[in-house]
Amino acid sequence: MRTQRQVVDYSLQKRAVLRELLAGRVGTYDVCDASPYLKNAARFHGEPTDRRCPICRSENLTLVHYIYGDELKQSAGQARTLAELPVLAMTLREFQVFVVEVCLGCDWNHLVEQYLLGRDGLTSDGDGVGEQDAAGAGGAGRRRREAQR
Questions:
Q1: Residue 36: other Cβ atoms inside 10 A
Q2: What's the whole-model pTM score?
Q3: Distances (CA, A) of 20 to 33, 46, 79, 113
Q4: Mind listing the pLDDT tens digit for each residue in 55-101?
Q5: Is the CB of residue 10 less than 8 Å from the CB of residue 113?
Q6: Which residues contact 109 (CB under 8 A, 6 or more apart)?
Q7: First vs last Cα of the chain: how many Å apart?
Q8: What DSSP string runs through 108-123?
Q9: Could you tell me which residues belong to the region Disordered (predicted)?
Q10: What pLDDT does residue 134 have?
């Protein structure tokens, strides 16, 4: 996505969890614990992938995109389809997206990545870094100081 920024990838953490599982230090029930809400979000809002589940190896994983942000108000925390994200990114200043992979067969779930989307990442030259980001950084520091009072 064009305005995607501040991307955090959790693949190393996923590998560590799988390594702990294979070593027997973590049980299958500890890692295969998807809630019914997450499974429903995967069914109705998820994006199917061609990657097999690392636990059961019988089902393909589904990616669920959750959105959070101040401008979202009551929509914060909802699962959205991948097609809805660019539309939201053009209408909202900034919101955070969390991508979770889910296996509908064995209930494996893990946070894959998180990133920011929104108009604040757009500039006239299209490189994603600009004056709005610099101005926003000063405002974020001010809000942080006010919250500490």
A1: 8
A2: 0.77
A3: 16, 27, 29, 20
A4: 999 999 999 999 999 888 888 889 999 999 999 989 989 999 999 99
A5: yes
A6: 32, 33, 34, 38, 100, 101, 102, 103
A7: 37
A8: -EEEEEEEEESGGG--
A9: 125-149
A10: 44
- The span from the CA of 9 to the CA of 53, in Å, is 18
Q: Higher pLDDT residue, 127 or 44? A: 44
Please tell me the distance from the alpha carbon of residue 91 to that of residue 85, in angstroms, as a whole number.
Answer: 10
Specify the length of the chain in residues. 149
Distance CA 99, CA 97 (A): 6
Return the domain boundaries, the chain: 5-148
84 and 110 Cβ atoms separated by less than 8 Å: no
Mean pLDDT, the chain, rounded, equals: 84
Please indicate whether residue 34 or residue 130 has the higher confidence score (pLDDT). 34
Compute CA 40 distance to the chain's CA centroid, rounded to the nearest angstrom.
17
Residue with tokens 């994006």: 47
Q: Is the distance from CB of 78 to CB of 91 less than 8 angstroms?
A: no
**Residue 39 CB neighbour total at 10 angstroms:** 18
Query: What residue type is assigned to position 91 of the chain?
Result: T
